[in-house]
Design goal:
alpha+beta; Macrophage Migration Inhibitory Factor; two-stranded antiparallel ribbon
Length: about 80
Amino acid sequence: MPLIEVKVIEGVFTSEQKKEIVKKLTDAMVSIEGENMRQVTMCIVEEVKSGDWGIGGKPLSTEDVKALAAGKAKS
């Protein structure tokens, strides 16, 4: 009974994108473990509060992630 846990910063992904994360990660796991395991493969997308996530000792905000996704470097 696999459990896939994904943590993302709040406000970065839409509801539709989070549904796609669940679907595609479940599909990936099922491709390894077999189709019979789909019904018991769990996937949780957990949002972490903006600023409560850090990289390189610096807090990362929702705006930072959106800028990164748009190809803009953080100052």
